[in-house]
């Protein structure tokens, strides 16, 4: 039997899907039953929770507040269930990990695979979010653990592990730059450049380098997607500038080379493993956290292969 009331479950479904009809299809509950529960809830709270629009339903300010609270209740209930399992000596639980797109390959899938082998009772949700959304989402209770680049620190955000991810030129293994231990910005912009574009934070880094060095290359292509940039480099369109963590897998398998930038003024990205300081971690979450911490040393820049 669901612990949450019918109203709470129906309200969260309507908020997620933006319409009573779609919530009805997702839950397998009649639309009239869902609508009745929403109306009863609004009457009980004395405030409308949704704006009724021709295109569907949109949360009011009161509805948005209630959604944050219900999500928190849901997370706390799951944590309570996990603690109850801990009392029984079980190793079960569900953990939600928030990550930026750059971490969707390599380390995170490896950690998940190891956890599944060693702790099959633990299930995970790995949610990819825009980097700037991850810290606030963690604090709002949308996840248990988070990987985030250059987090905006607060009293709630605690960094458990971090590693610097320097910038460098990404080239094919046979490229002239790939023979060097490091390269100046002016050397790289002499070649056809595939430029990262906004909203990628790399675009700001490259703009700073151009202003600081007085050198500006002429991009032959731009993209706001890291995977697209790497594919263009592999196809010989040009070289690019990315962070070391973006190309760890490709450097490891020899399909791309990474040449660090010879500029000590440019600040590397810092990848941080964060938790919400205000929340205690159940046993399952602690096990996942320990696995992530143990994997961080492996993020050190791999030896380039030409």
Automatic annotation (TrEMBL):
<dbReference type="InterPro" id="IPR036388">
    <property type="entry name" value="WH-like_DNA-bd_sf"/>
</dbReference>
<dbReference type="Pfam" id="PF03466">
    <property type="entry name" value="LysR_substrate"/>
</dbReference>
<dbReference type="Pfam" id="PF00126">
    <property type="entry name" value="HTH_1"/>
</dbReference>
<feature type="domain" description="HTH lysR-type">
    <location>
        <begin position="9"/>
        <end position="60"/>
    </location>
</feature>
<keyword id="KW-0804">Transcription</keyword>
<dbReference type="InterPro" id="IPR050950">
    <property type="entry name" value="HTH-type_LysR_regulators"/>
</dbReference>
<dbReference type="InterPro" id="IPR005119">
    <property type="entry name" value="LysR_subst-bd"/>
</dbReference>
<dbReference type="InterPro" id="IPR036390">
    <property type="entry name" value="WH_DNA-bd_sf"/>
</dbReference>
<keyword id="KW-0805">Transcription regulation</keyword>
<comment type="similarity">
    <text>Belongs to the LysR transcriptional regulatory family.</text>
</comment>
<dbReference type="InterPro" id="IPR000847">
    <property type="entry name" value="LysR_HTH_N"/>
</dbReference>
<keyword id="KW-0238">DNA-binding</keyword>
<protein>
    <submittedName>
        <fullName>LysR family transcriptional regulator</fullName>
    </submittedName>
</protein>
């Amino acid at each position: 039997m669901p612990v949450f009331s019918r109203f709470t479950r129906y309200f969260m479904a309507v908020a997620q899907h933006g319409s009573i009809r779609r919530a009805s299809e997702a839950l397998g509950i009649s639309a009239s039953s869902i609508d009745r529960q929403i109306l009863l809830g609004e009457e009980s709270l004395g405030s409308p929770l949704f704006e009724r629009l021709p295109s569907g339903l949109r949360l009011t300010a009161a509805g948005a507040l209630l959604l944050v609270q219900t999500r928190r209740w849901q997370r706390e209930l799951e944590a309570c269930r996990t603690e109850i399992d801990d009392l029984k000596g079980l190793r079960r639980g569900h953990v939600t990990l928030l990550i930026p797109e750059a971490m969707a390959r390599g380390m995170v899938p490896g950690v998940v695979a190891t956890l599944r082998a060693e702790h099959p009772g633990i299930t995970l949700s790995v949610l990819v979010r825009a980097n700037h959304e991850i810290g606030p989402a963690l604090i709002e209770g949308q996840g248990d653990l988070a990987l985030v680049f250059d987090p905006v620190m607060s009293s709630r955000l605690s960094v458990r592990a971090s590693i610097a991810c320097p910038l460098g030129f990404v080239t094919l293994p046979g490229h002239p730059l790939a023979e060097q231990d490091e390269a100046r910005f002016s050397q790289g912009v002499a070649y056809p450049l595939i430029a990262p574009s906004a909203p990628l934070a790399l675009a700001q880094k490259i703009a700073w380098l151009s202003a600081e060095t007085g050198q500006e290359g002429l991009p032959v292509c731009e993209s706001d997607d890291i995977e697209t940039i790497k594919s263009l480099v592999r196809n010989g369109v040009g070289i690019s500038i990315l962070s070391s963590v973006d190309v760890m897998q490709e450097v490891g398998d020899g399909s791309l080379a990474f040449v660090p930038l010879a500029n000590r003024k440019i600040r590397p990205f810092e990848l941080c493993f964060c938790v919400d300081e205000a929340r205690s971690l159940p046993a399952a979450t602690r096990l996942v956290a320990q696995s992530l911490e143990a994997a961080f040393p492996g993020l050190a820049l791999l030896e380039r292969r030409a």
